[in-house]
Protein backbone atom coordinates (compact mmCIF):
# COMPACT_ATOMS: atom_id res chain seq x y z
CA UNK A 1 0.00 0.00 0.00
CA UNK A 2 1.10 3.56 -0.70
CA UNK A 3 -0.17 6.55 1.25
CA UNK A 4 -0.09 9.96 -0.40
CA UNK A 5 -0.46 13.27 1.41
CA UNK A 6 -1.48 16.29 -0.65
CA UNK A 7 -0.79 19.18 1.70
CA UNK A 8 1.76 19.03 4.51
CA UNK A 9 0.69 21.97 6.66
CA UNK A 10 0.03 21.79 10.39
CA UNK A 11 -2.60 19.07 10.23
CA UNK A 12 -1.34 17.20 7.18
CA UNK A 13 2.15 17.21 8.63
CA UNK A 14 0.90 15.96 12.00
CA UNK A 15 -0.89 13.05 10.31
CA UNK A 16 2.18 12.20 8.23
CA UNK A 17 4.27 12.11 11.42
CA UNK A 18 1.69 9.86 13.06
CA UNK A 19 1.67 7.53 10.04
CA UNK A 20 5.47 7.39 10.05
CA UNK A 21 5.40 5.87 13.54
CA UNK A 22 4.14 2.71 11.85
CA UNK A 23 7.40 1.13 10.70
CA UNK A 24 5.86 -0.93 7.92
CA UNK A 25 4.17 2.17 6.51
CA UNK A 26 6.99 4.73 6.66
CA UNK A 27 8.67 3.77 3.40
CA UNK A 28 5.30 3.87 1.62
CA UNK A 29 4.47 7.52 2.45
CA UNK A 30 4.55 10.07 -0.38
CA UNK A 31 4.31 13.80 0.34
CA UNK A 32 3.18 16.60 -1.96
CA UNK A 33 2.83 20.27 -1.16
CA UNK A 34 2.38 23.48 -3.12
CA UNK A 35 5.70 24.53 -1.58
CA UNK A 36 7.91 21.54 -2.51
CA UNK A 37 10.63 22.56 -0.04
CA UNK A 38 8.18 22.12 2.83
CA UNK A 39 7.31 18.61 1.71
CA UNK A 40 11.01 17.79 1.26
CA UNK A 41 11.86 18.97 4.77
CA UNK A 42 9.14 16.80 6.31
CA UNK A 43 10.11 13.85 4.10
CA UNK A 44 13.69 14.06 5.39
CA UNK A 45 12.37 14.12 8.95
CA UNK A 46 10.11 11.05 8.68
CA UNK A 47 11.80 9.03 5.93
CA UNK A 48 9.14 9.57 3.26
CA UNK A 49 9.43 10.41 -0.44
CA UNK A 50 8.29 13.52 -2.31
CA UNK A 51 6.16 13.87 -5.44
CA UNK A 52 3.65 16.26 -6.97
CA UNK A 53 -0.14 16.20 -6.65
CA UNK A 54 -0.70 14.41 -9.95
CA UNK A 55 1.75 11.64 -9.09
CA UNK A 56 0.06 11.09 -5.73
CA UNK A 57 -3.34 10.98 -7.45
CA UNK A 58 -2.05 8.54 -10.08
CA UNK A 59 -0.11 6.10 -7.91
CA UNK A 60 -1.22 6.08 -4.25
CA UNK A 61 -3.78 3.71 -2.77
CA UNK A 62 -4.80 6.22 -0.10
CA UNK A 63 -4.87 9.90 -1.04
CA UNK A 64 -5.07 12.22 1.94
CA UNK A 65 -6.44 15.62 0.97
CA UNK A 66 -4.76 17.94 3.46
CA UNK A 67 -5.74 21.33 2.04
CA UNK A 68 -7.98 24.03 3.49
CA UNK A 69 -11.72 23.79 2.69
CA UNK A 70 -11.62 26.87 0.47
CA UNK A 71 -8.80 25.33 -1.60
CA UNK A 72 -10.33 21.86 -1.94
CA UNK A 73 -12.35 22.47 -5.11
CA UNK A 74 -9.36 23.82 -7.02
CA UNK A 75 -7.05 21.03 -5.91
CA UNK A 76 -9.58 18.30 -6.76
CA UNK A 77 -10.26 19.89 -10.14
CA UNK A 78 -6.51 19.57 -10.82
CA UNK A 79 -6.33 15.86 -10.00
CA UNK A 80 -9.82 14.82 -11.20
CA UNK A 81 -8.68 13.88 -14.76
CA UNK A 82 -6.01 11.60 -13.28
CA UNK A 83 -8.48 9.97 -10.92
CA UNK A 84 -10.88 9.27 -13.80
CA UNK A 85 -8.15 7.42 -15.69
CA UNK A 86 -7.23 5.12 -12.82
CA UNK A 87 -7.92 1.42 -13.14
CA UNK A 88 -6.74 0.44 -9.65
CA UNK A 89 -8.71 0.98 -6.41
CA UNK A 90 -8.01 4.04 -4.28
CA UNK A 91 -9.55 5.92 -1.35
CA UNK A 92 -9.80 9.67 -0.83
CA UNK A 93 -9.29 10.83 2.76
CA UNK A 94 -10.56 14.33 3.48
CA UNK A 95 -9.97 16.30 6.67
CA UNK A 96 -11.52 19.55 5.41
CA UNK A 97 -13.90 21.04 7.95
CA UNK A 98 -17.44 21.39 6.70
CA UNK A 99 -17.04 19.32 3.52
CA UNK A 100 -19.25 16.25 3.56
CA UNK A 101 -18.51 12.95 1.86
CA UNK A 102 -21.06 13.85 -0.81
CA UNK A 103 -19.42 17.24 -1.41
CA UNK A 104 -15.95 15.70 -1.77
CA UNK A 105 -17.29 13.23 -4.33
CA UNK A 106 -18.97 16.05 -6.22
CA UNK A 107 -15.75 18.07 -6.32
CA UNK A 108 -13.70 15.03 -7.34
CA UNK A 109 -16.10 14.19 -10.14
CA UNK A 110 -16.97 10.61 -9.21
CA UNK A 111 -18.52 8.33 -6.60
CA UNK A 112 -15.11 7.36 -5.28
CA UNK A 113 -14.58 5.72 -1.88
CA UNK A 114 -14.16 8.53 0.64
CA UNK A 115 -13.18 8.50 4.31
CA UNK A 116 -13.91 11.79 5.99
CA UNK A 117 -11.61 12.33 8.97
CA UNK A 118 -11.51 14.97 11.69
CA UNK A 119 -8.16 14.69 13.53
CA UNK A 120 -6.33 17.02 15.89
CA UNK A 121 -2.66 17.97 15.96
CA UNK A 122 -1.88 15.74 18.97
CA UNK A 123 -1.88 12.78 16.55
CA UNK A 124 1.77 13.71 15.92
CA UNK A 125 2.67 12.52 19.45
CA UNK A 126 0.31 9.55 19.54
CA UNK A 127 -2.25 11.21 21.81
CA UNK A 128 -4.68 12.61 19.27
CA UNK A 129 -8.33 12.04 18.44
CA UNK A 130 -9.39 11.18 14.90
CA UNK A 131 -13.09 10.89 14.22
CA UNK A 132 -14.05 9.39 10.88
CA UNK A 133 -16.90 8.20 8.71
CA UNK A 134 -16.86 6.21 5.48
CA UNK A 135 -18.80 6.39 2.25
CA UNK A 136 -20.92 3.33 1.54
CA UNK A 137 -18.43 1.94 -0.98
CA UNK A 138 -15.38 1.86 1.30
CA UNK A 139 -14.57 -1.83 1.70
CA UNK A 140 -13.68 -3.49 4.98
CA UNK A 141 -10.14 -3.97 3.68
CA UNK A 142 -9.82 -0.29 2.82
CA UNK A 143 -11.11 0.73 6.24
CA UNK A 144 -8.62 -1.62 7.91
CA UNK A 145 -5.84 -0.12 5.80
CA UNK A 146 -6.80 3.34 7.01
CA UNK A 147 -6.80 2.16 10.63
CA UNK A 148 -3.37 0.58 10.12
CA UNK A 149 -2.10 3.89 8.78
CA UNK A 150 -3.08 5.85 11.88
CA UNK A 151 -3.18 3.26 14.63
CA UNK A 152 -0.26 4.96 16.40
CA UNK A 153 -1.98 8.36 16.38
CA UNK A 154 -4.20 7.96 19.46
CA UNK A 155 -7.95 7.43 19.58
CA UNK A 156 -9.60 6.45 16.28
CA UNK A 157 -13.37 6.41 16.42
CA UNK A 158 -15.93 5.87 13.69
CA UNK A 159 -18.88 8.24 13.98
CA UNK A 160 -22.08 8.85 12.04
CA UNK A 161 -21.41 11.70 9.62
CA UNK A 162 -24.22 13.79 11.12
CA UNK A 163 -22.20 13.90 14.38
CA UNK A 164 -18.77 14.56 12.86
CA UNK A 165 -19.07 18.35 13.00
CA UNK A 166 -20.07 18.34 16.67
CA UNK A 167 -17.31 15.89 17.51
CA UNK A 168 -14.76 18.00 15.67
CA UNK A 169 -15.82 21.16 17.54
CA UNK A 170 -14.91 19.37 20.79
CA UNK A 171 -11.99 17.12 19.85
CA UNK A 172 -10.50 19.07 16.96
CA UNK A 173 -10.99 22.73 17.84
CA UNK A 174 -10.82 21.94 21.55
CA UNK A 175 -7.06 21.54 21.36
CA UNK A 176 -6.68 25.27 20.73
CA UNK A 177 -8.97 26.01 23.66
CA UNK A 178 -6.85 23.75 25.88
CA UNK A 179 -3.64 25.48 24.78
CA UNK A 180 -5.20 28.85 25.58
CA UNK A 181 -6.12 27.61 29.06
CA UNK A 182 -2.66 26.12 29.52
CA UNK A 183 -1.03 29.41 28.54
CA UNK A 184 -3.26 31.33 30.94
CA UNK A 185 -2.41 28.95 33.79
CA UNK A 186 1.28 29.47 33.07
CA UNK A 187 0.76 33.24 33.01
CA UNK A 188 -0.82 33.02 36.45
CA UNK A 189 2.12 30.99 37.68
CA UNK A 190 4.54 33.58 36.34
CA UNK A 191 2.59 36.33 38.10
CA UNK A 192 2.87 34.32 41.32
CA UNK A 193 6.64 34.07 40.89
CA UNK A 194 7.35 30.89 38.92
CA UNK A 195 9.85 30.94 36.03
CA UNK A 196 8.00 30.71 32.70
CA UNK A 197 9.43 27.30 31.71
CA UNK A 198 8.49 25.72 35.02
CA UNK A 199 5.01 27.26 35.04
CA UNK A 200 4.29 25.93 31.56
CA UNK A 201 5.65 22.47 32.31
CA UNK A 202 3.64 22.19 35.53
CA UNK A 203 0.46 23.37 33.80
CA UNK A 204 0.93 20.97 30.88
CA UNK A 205 1.60 17.98 33.12
CA UNK A 206 -1.37 18.88 35.31
CA UNK A 207 -3.69 18.93 32.28
CA UNK A 208 -2.24 15.65 31.04
CA UNK A 209 -2.79 14.00 34.41
CA UNK A 210 -6.28 15.45 34.82
CA UNK A 211 -7.26 14.17 31.38
CA UNK A 212 -5.89 10.71 32.13
CA UNK A 213 -7.73 10.56 35.45
CA UNK A 214 -10.98 11.66 33.78
CA UNK A 215 -10.59 8.91 31.16
CA UNK A 216 -9.76 6.15 33.65
CA UNK A 217 -12.03 7.09 36.55
CA UNK A 218 -15.67 6.07 36.86
CA UNK A 219 -16.40 9.35 38.66
CA UNK A 220 -18.12 12.29 36.99
CA UNK A 221 -15.83 15.23 36.32
CA UNK A 222 -17.82 17.23 38.88
CA UNK A 223 -16.85 14.67 41.52
CA UNK A 224 -13.20 14.82 40.43
CA UNK A 225 -13.33 18.60 40.78
CA UNK A 226 -14.98 18.38 44.20
CA UNK A 227 -12.25 15.99 45.38
CA UNK A 228 -9.68 18.78 44.92
CA UNK A 229 -11.79 21.51 46.57
CA UNK A 230 -11.39 21.53 50.37
CA UNK A 231 -13.97 23.61 52.29
CA UNK A 232 -12.71 27.14 52.59
CA UNK A 233 -9.54 26.20 50.71
CA UNK A 234 -7.40 27.63 47.95
CA UNK A 235 -8.82 25.58 45.07
CA UNK A 236 -12.46 26.51 45.66
CA UNK A 237 -11.37 30.15 45.77
CA UNK A 238 -9.88 29.70 42.30
CA UNK A 239 -13.00 27.88 41.05
CA UNK A 240 -15.13 30.78 42.31
CA UNK A 241 -12.96 33.22 40.35
CA UNK A 242 -13.41 31.17 37.17
CA UNK A 243 -17.17 31.02 37.68
CA UNK A 244 -17.32 34.78 38.30
CA UNK A 245 -15.74 35.32 34.88
CA UNK A 246 -18.06 32.92 33.07
CA UNK A 247 -15.54 30.15 32.47
CA UNK A 248 -18.07 27.39 31.73
CA UNK A 249 -20.22 29.59 29.52
CA UNK A 250 -17.16 30.73 27.56
CA UNK A 251 -16.08 27.12 26.97
CA UNK A 252 -19.58 26.10 25.87
CA UNK A 253 -19.85 29.12 23.58
CA UNK A 254 -16.45 28.34 22.03
CA UNK A 255 -17.59 24.85 21.02
CA UNK A 256 -20.89 26.17 19.66
CA UNK A 257 -19.09 28.92 17.70
CA UNK A 258 -16.75 26.35 16.14
CA UNK A 259 -19.71 24.11 15.27
CA UNK A 260 -21.66 26.99 13.75
CA UNK A 261 -18.63 28.02 11.66
CA UNK A 262 -18.34 24.47 10.32
CA UNK A 263 -21.98 24.57 9.26
CA UNK A 264 -21.39 27.93 7.57
CA UNK A 265 -18.51 26.43 5.60
CA UNK A 266 -20.86 23.73 4.31
CA UNK A 267 -23.16 26.38 2.91
CA UNK A 268 -20.40 28.49 1.35
CA UNK A 269 -19.99 28.20 -2.44
CA UNK A 270 -16.86 26.39 -3.67
CA UNK A 271 -14.12 28.51 -5.23
Describe the secondary-structure layout:
Layout: E1 3-6, H1 10-20, H2 23-26, E2 29-32, H3 36-46, E3 49-50, H4 53-59, E4 62-65, H5 69-85, E5 91-94, H6 101-108, E6 114-118, E7 128-134, H7 140-150, E8 154-158, H8 161-171, H9 174-191, H10 196-216, H11 221-228, H12 234-244, H13 247-267
Parallel strand pairs: 1-2, 1-4, 2-3, 4-5, 5-6, 7-8
Antiparallel strand pairs: 6-7
Helix pairs in contact: 4-5, 8-13, 9-10
Structure description:
By secondary structure, the chain is of the alpha/beta class. The protein folds into two domains: 3-168, 3-Layer(aba) Sandwich (Rossmann fold); 174-266, ProC C-terminal domain-like fold, CATH 1.10.3730. 59% of the residues lie in helices and 13% in strands. The protein contains 13 helices and eight strands. It has helices at residues 10-20, 23-26, 36-46, 53-59, 69-85, 101-108, 140-150, 161-171, 174-191, 196-216, 221-228, 234-244, 247-267, and strands spanning 3-6, 29-32, 49-50, 62-65, 91-94, 114-118, 128-134, 154-158. The chain has an eight-stranded mixed sheet with strand order 3-2-1-4-5-6-7-8, sandwiched between helices. The mean pLDDT is 94.
Structural Rg: 21 Å
What is the residue-averaged pLDDT?
94
Largest sheet: 8 strands, mixed
**N-to-C terminal Cα separation, in Å?**
32 Å
Globally, the shape reads: elongated
**Integer tally of domains:** 2
Level-2 CATH architecture of the largest domain = 3-Layer(aba) Sandwich
The side-by-side strand order for the widest beta sheet comes to: 3-2-1-4-5-6-7-8
**Number of helix segments?**
13
Q: Name the structural class.
A: alpha/beta
> What share of residues is helical?
55-70%
Q: The CATH topology of the largest domain is what?
A: Rossmann fold
- The fourth-level CATH homologous superfamily of the largest domain is NAD(P)-binding Rossmann-like Domain
Please tally the β strands and state the result: 8
